[in-house]
Write a structure and sequence with these properties.
This protein folds into two domains: about 5-85, SH3 type barrels (Roll); about 105-185, Ribosome maturation factor RimP, C-terminal domain (SH3 type barrels, Roll), CATH 2.30.30.180. Strand 1 (about 20-25) and strand 2 (about 30-40) form a beta hairpin. The termini are far apart. The model has no long low-confidence stretch (mean pLDDT about 90). It has about 190 residues and is an alpha+beta fold. The chain is about 30% helix and about 35% strand.
């Protein structure tokens, strides 16, 4: 469970629009994500992700309780900010207006992806799946899953409570979108 201090830091990073690094593995200092914290609730945190090389990499939604430590204003975050500014890249919010602290951030992101027909990746305790959300209610989501080569591979239903991480617009989803589109052209 996230500490009150980590939650406070996430809220500060969001309010002050600061690049932050979110650490999620106590034994692995390389297990972190960096970027702009776009929204924070008690249950979920939405991050506009930036690669270690200063390139935007979509959005990452994770359980707030999984964030163990938050760093802001250190040399690494300053360097990322500099790289983004040098490239003229600015953060464009995924959700506008930003959801309130009591809203279900996970459902908001999944609804948006479904409405736009966007690919998402869902990480559970067992595996990671990429595809399009075809159904969503208060308890579960159904995804049209793509296989390794971007071909449709049936449906999979996920209880929302089992979703550990959801990504949207990352390099992985862009790759799957290309594979899927080209596959359709070949058929």
């Amino acid at each position: 469970m996230t500490s009150k201090y980590s939650y406070y830091q996430l809220r500060i990073a969001c309010q002050q629009h600061m690049v932050a690094s979110l650490y999620t593995e106590p034994d692995d200092p390389d297990a972190f994500s960096a970027g702009y914290v776009e929204a924070v609730t008690q249950r979920h945190t939405l991050l506009w992700s930036v690669t270690p090389w200063g390139q935007p990499d979509g959005w990452l939604l994770r359980r707030t309780e999984d964030v163990l430590q938050v760093f802001m204003g250190d040399d690494f975050e300053i360097r990322l900010q500099m790289l983004l500014e040098m490239d003229g890249v600015s953060h464009t919010p995924l959700l506008s207006p930003s959801p309130g602290p009591e809203e279900d951030l996970l459902r908001c992101v999944l609804q948006l992806a479904q409405a736009r027909g966007e690919l998402v990746s869902v990480m559970t305790a067992e595996d990671t799946f990429t595809g399009m959300i075809s159904y969503l209610d208060d308890l579960r989501a159904t995804m049209e899953v793509l296989d390794f080569f971007g071909a449709k591979d049936g449906q999979r239903q996920f209880p929302l409570r089992e979703m550990q991480v959801v990504t949207l617009g990352t390099q992985e989803e862009v790759m799957y979108k290309r594979l899927h589109a080209e596959r359709l052209k070949l058929l």
